[in-house]
Amino acid sequence: MEKQCLSSYTLQQLTALMKELGQPTFRAKQIFHWLHQKLVVDFSAMTDQPKALLAKLEERFYLANPTIQRKQQSKDGTVKYLFRLADGNCIETVLMRYHYGNTVCVSTQVGCRMGCRFCASTQAGRVRNLEAGEIASEIYAVQKDTGERVSHIVLMGIGEPLDNFENVMDFLEIISCADGVNIGMRNISLSTCGVVPQIDRLAEKKLQLTLSVSLHAPNNTMRSSMMPVNDAYSVEELIDACRRYQKTTGRRISFEYSMVRGVNDTAETARQLANLIRGMGAHVNLIPINPVDGSPYSASDAENVKRFQSLLTQMGVNATVRRRLGSDISAACGQLRREEATKEDKA
Ligand code: SAH
């Protein structure tokens, strides 16, 4: 029997497991503390647990324990990790130091199958989903490596979080649990390329997190040329889903808009974008695209980004230009993992 990841169990699931094993249920909370507060990665470290129970658990389960394969430090304090997982797969995690606290950008899948034309993470497709505990362990590993507390999380690394729905929901429950590291939902952002049915499913959970939608273009011709997901769910369907999401959750969403020279950065495009989302109270994050190998796109220049921003503002849409952290260490998602894969291919 293949071992399961015990780090992926929510407190509720652990409680059910203890019942199944004929154990008192208080053990669930104790084990949860060990895994998600004391961040141990070894069964033998849980010193208040009966040896027989630990042995039984170890037969059936493993603990998420990513190892640092590579680490790059940017001049601006950003740190990028390439973690190796138990099965040998690699994922990327980024630590960003903001004035309001340390933010970790986590991967949710090994690779991605969404196919966005500007993105390095998707070029070799999706290998597998990450387990809830593997996603949490990205944060724990960063915390342990730096000795600094992580206060904010963005699900903006490799993978499409809504394409790994169940595991991502369990991850959110684990990471925001008062018996774990207790990171509040309001400090968490989840980014999606726009998988409409899953946005509706997420809305029903009524979580207090921030939903970021990677819009990148205000019309179907332009968006489909950049993002194949748009062939499945059009711009209109996506915006409708965003409105439903806001209504159901009472939370404003934000739009990601990566700016590509000569593709989505003209004054006419700004006008279309403003017409599309005006009145939603949504926020637009503008960022020049980070050019990746094998992609035809280059970044809009800073002046054009500024102009685009002021056009949006004039037309009643709230927009900010995001600082590009870690650009000296190829911190755009997927680039480090690809380098590693290419290296291994050559070896
Ligand atoms: N799959 C999710 C989250 C991961 S990508 C999503 O699509 O939202 C996180 C953000 O980075 C998305 O807005 C994505 O469109 C953007 N992105 C990906 N590659 C990029 C690049 N090379 N330059 C700028 N933004 C990029």
Automatic annotation (TrEMBL):
Alphabetized Pfam families for the sequence: Radical_SAM, RlmN_N
Domain of life: Bacteria
Chain residues that bind [4Fe-4S] cluster: 112, 116, 119
Catalytic activity: adenosine(37) in tRNA + 2 reduced [2Fe-2S]-[ferredoxin] + 2 S-adenosyl-L-methionine = 2-methyladenosine(37) in tRNA + 5'-deoxyadenosine + L-methionine + 2 oxidized [2Fe-2S]-[ferredoxin] + S-adenosyl-L-homocysteine; adenosine(2503) in 23S rRNA + 2 reduced [2Fe-2S]-[ferredoxin] + 2 S-adenosyl-L-methionine = 2-methyladenosine(2503) in 23S rRNA + 5'-deoxyadenosine + L-methionine + 2 oxidized [2Fe-2S]-[ferredoxin] + S-adenosyl-L-homocysteine
CC cofactor: [4Fe-4S] cluster
Primary localization class, coarse: cytoplasm
UniProt-annotated catalytic positions: 92, 333
Segments forming domain Radical SAM core: 98-328
PROSITE patterns: RADICAL_SAM (PS51918)
GO molecular function annotation: 4 iron, 4 sulfur cluster binding; metal ion binding; rRNA (adenine(2503)-C2-)-methyltransferase activity; rRNA binding; tRNA (adenine(37)-C2)-methyltransferase activity; tRNA binding
Family matches, as CDD domains: Radical_SAM
SUPFAM superfamilies found in the cross-reference section: Radical SAM enzymes (SSF102114)
GO process terms (BP): rRNA base methylation; tRNA methylation
Record localization: Cytoplasm
Co-factor remark: Binds 1 [4Fe-4S] cluster. The cluster is coordinated with 3 cysteines and an exchangeable S-adenosyl-L-methionine.
Other comments on record: Reaction proceeds by a ping-pong mechanism involving intermediate methylation of a conserved cysteine residue.
General function of this protein: Specifically methylates position 2 of adenine 2503 in 23S rRNA and position 2 of adenine 37 in tRNAs.
Family recorded in the similarity comment: Belongs to the radical SAM superfamily. RlmN family.
Protein name: Probable dual-specificity RNA methyltransferase RlmN
The species this protein was found in: Candidatus Allofournierella pullistercoris
Gene symbol of the encoding locus: rlmN
